[in-house]
Write a structure and sequence with these properties.
The structure holds 2 protein chains of 2 kinds. Chain A is of the alpha/beta class. Chain A has helices spanning about 60-70, 90-95, 115-125, 145-155, 160-175, 180-185, 195-205, 225-240, 250-255, 275-280, 285-290; strands at about 20-30, 35-45, 50-55, 80, 105, 110, 130, 210-215, 245-250, 260-265, 270-275, 340-345, 345-350. Chain B has helices at about 20-40, 40-65, 100-135, 135-150, 155-165, 170-195, 200-210, 215-250, 260-265, 270-275, 280-305. Classes of the chains: A alpha/beta, B mainly alpha.
Chain lengths: ~375, ~300
Amino acid sequence: MTAPIVAAQAAPSSSPQALLEVRDLRTYFKVMDGVVRAVDGVSFSINRGETLGIVGESGCGKSVTALSIMRLHDTPPTWIPTDANQADLPDDVKALLGDAPSSRILFEGRDLLTLPGEQMRAVRGNEIAMIFQEPMTSLNPVFTVGNQIAEAVMLHQRMSKKDAWDKAIESIRAVGINNPERRVRQYPHELSGGMRQRVMIAMALSCDPKLIIADEPTTALDVTIQAQILELIREVQDRTGAALMLITHDLGVVAETVHDVVVMYAGRVVETGTVDDVLLAPKHPYTEGLLTSIPSRGMKGQRLNVITGTVPNPFNMPAGCNFAPRCPYAFEPCSEHDPRIEDADPQDVACWLYSRAPGSSATPPRVRPRGAEVRA
Amino acid sequence: MSESTLPARPAATPDPESADYEVALESLNQWQLAWRRFRRHKMAMVGLFIFAVMVFLAVFGPVFWPYDPLSLRSDLPGPQGLSPLDLPPMGSDGAGRSVWSLVSNGARLSLIIGMSTMAIAVTIGVSVGAAAGFFGGRVDGFLMRFVDLMLTIPFLFIVLVAARFFGAGELLPLILIFGLLSWPGLARLVRALYLSLREQEFVQAAKAVGVGNVRIAFRHILPNAIGPIVVSATLLVANAIILEAFVSFLNFGLKAQDISWGNALARSQQTIAVGNWWWPFFPGMAIALTVIAINFIGDGLRDALDPRSRE
């Protein structure tokens, strides 16, 4: 298996078949109280037709990453440093950036971050489609679902109204909705949550995108529907050959759906590799903590493992490793030096347990206090 | 529930295989369903009926009372005039004019003023409010400070000054002044609606599909704000009619030879001395009935235009 995920430091040149390559993405929000580093140097890439999961707890920057790729943030208050906007960056954002490299989001070689607005609009929906978390509110309540899908089609393809309408019916049929001729004429409030999410998927697929970004597509749905929707996403992804970027906090969903996974914590990538490597043999203490905090049958009667402490205050990130204050293995270099993501065979990890900190002679504690009994 | 979106008689639907099947049902969804919901609103139907009568009077009034409403008829005695009992249906005024003639002919100008004022105020108010709410930031700050400024201008003062400069009693300046002074309230309302609607997920979803800003503002957000705007617009019509009456009563409105309900009311000022109730009563009733009718229509429209409202 080739390693489809490329850590930025490891391979700065884009691999030939990478569809999307995110490099050193830094998304900062300048708000009244200061600057929030929502995403702080995230790099990953997705190849054509591949599946990538992004996991992490709430507020770790998963959704911000997705919205940054689609460029759906308003500037200001959101700032992403590129080669083009250095002069416009507010001073406090600049100060935090230091000499960090410009962010790049390369989609088929084009940097989306510097694309003119008009061209970016042509990418949205057409080449990269997004499925949102809340099917209840992501559809416009005053238009029929057919109308909304047909609009998406007509925005990007030269098509008559009639053809766009037929395309809407066809794409609704393709996501497993019965009686599509009738459903297209219904308003969102007339459909159930699961059916609305199917409509959202139909809309995302209507222009045959090369990349589908699904931002927690099943979080708002009940468990039985979740399975159906995941099955559907996997199936359409198979059928259309589109690449899939699945954002979720549910490790079970990741294990079932994607091939590669990126684990994020406090705006950084802490571990990345294939699902099998990362979930079966986690290296980063945070990933391990996430996995051991899932209740399992083998642990019946025992106390559930939790990651102690809370996510750091975004205005006041700890020096050194962001996870150090909560890390059971933290040792000398962790509170001083920021680990970079490095190859720790087979996956890539940002942790001093696996690489030598600069100027540090401390040996990492090799003990694993908790029997890392994890499920795939 | 879902059946409600289908035609009442399925037998009458076109062949599902035919090309215009969807098109036909689409139009039924948008407008015929709205009309169906509107019809269920009884008071709105009453309002529509009254309003239709007023429009009918405005257009055809002279046909039914072929006297020139301004001609002073020697057969109608002044200064007391005739009571409605002596000259049905509404009696005559002190100068020998038929009150019915005044009311039926006055509908024309009163409705023109009401509708035109509304059209101007809605155009400006929706544009300004939408721009301020949608773009936010500096655009919002600038536009809303301008709205604040507009709201500090004393209305009566402007009317007096305008009457002095444009010549009192001209119809067009009057409409322009009413329109240009009535939009700030609506702009604030629309801005507030946009501020909340633009944060809705469907707006982000539309952006993610590649829809442009202008299209999002007017095609995606505006239909969601249409209910409160329609209600507000009907209130503007009613308000302009009342304003015209008020300004005319103070003799700063239309010229004496123009007939509007407000003018008719203004002419009946001597009632206070003479005591003939029918001089102010009928024009006043015409104003009150029209205003109430328009308000009911607005109420019905708000419900009818919202696809979420249950039938």
